[in-house]
Amino acid sequence: MADPRLALTDEWFLAHGLPYFVPEQRAGARDALRLGRTVPLVVLTGLAAAAAGVALALVSGQLTLAPATAVTLGMLAAGWYALTALRASPIVRWALHRAFGSLRTVLPMMTRALPLLLIFVTFLFINAEVWQVSSRQDGAALWLVALLFGILAVLFLLVRLPEEVDRTDDQVDDALLLLACRGTPLEDAARDLVDDPGADPAAHAEIHGFERWNLVLVLLVIQAVQVLLLSATVFLFFMLFGSMVMRDDVVETWIGEPTANLTVELFQVSIFLAAFSGLYLTVATVTDETYREQFFGTVLHEMERAVGIRAVYLALRERR
């Protein structure tokens, strides 16, 4: 007979953005990654995205629309497949809820991260070369540059965030298991297993495979939302600052030609610097110990709790 506590814990995992901690969800995601399913989808999506990009480029006369459209459609298709077939929607939903639910912590992060960044980036803003580069890009090319900065930031996080996750299962002991399971369906089971000399639930604490990447994705979405909010603040600052200090004759001198619309060029420069600031903030919040604690402190405690509950969950499944 199945233990009802296991079913309740499965529901708890799903509600807290941990679908890959549930064996059935994990098996479904693993099946969706089989080459027999993914390769045809990748080929068809790539062909459709390329065709759409070429068509838009021919109609508009802007060659940069082809790669911009293809890359954007490919990313949208990959995101949709992840949310549906790979069962990642609970991860994204909980991470977004967690990120926007802690907006009160964004102001302290801004006061810590933004002043030095704004001082540094302001010197770029009043640099003629930055205006020349940004103003000569059409919308598609500027979008590709912003995507490039975003992709680099995500790749950096995918390299560094697993290190943060690996730290969560290093200090798991009986006291942590009891604390983690408090108020969950496994509270009584944790006490029984800890008191049982023949059981060792802490032995199940090591995270690997899909479950490890589940925690990485949670951190990735939370980090992305916070960096986007800070980048949006940088963008708004430069739009306001530029509208106050920039003049048509100065911009014309910098870019070497009459300006058709200062607002458009100001928008392009602000987007470029905001995207660059997002990449800088991503690196700073992971490599700097103070920033890291500010960004990840409370979330990592929740990750430790998830690891503890999972250890008891696996020990109880093994016993049953």
Explain this structure to me?
This is Integral membrane protein. The chain has one domain (about 90-320). Helix content is about 80%, strand content about 0%. It has helices at about 5-15, 25-30, 35-60, 65-85, 90-100, 105-125, 130-135, 140-165, 175-180, 185-195, 210-245, 250-255, 260-285, 290-320. The model has no long low-confidence stretch (mean pLDDT about 85).
Concise structural overview:
By secondary structure, the protein is an all-alpha fold. Helix content is 80%, strand content 0%. The protein has 14 helices and no strands.
Key phrases:
mainly alpha, transmembrane helix, 0% strand, 320 residues, Integral membrane protein
Computed Rg = 24 Å
Low-confidence stretches are none
User: Mean pLDDT across all residues, rounded?
Assistant: 86
Describe the global form.
flat
| Alpha-carbon distance between the two ends | 9 Å
Largest sheet, strands/sense/barrel:
none
Strand elements, count: 0
Series of H and E elements: HHHHHHHHHHHHHH
The number of helical segments is 14
Strand and helix layout:
Blueprint: H1 4-15, H2 23-32, H3 35-60, H4 65-84, H5 89-101, H6 106-125, H7 128-135, H8 139-167, H9 174-181, H10 187-195, H11 209-245, H12 248-255, H13 262-287, H14 289-319
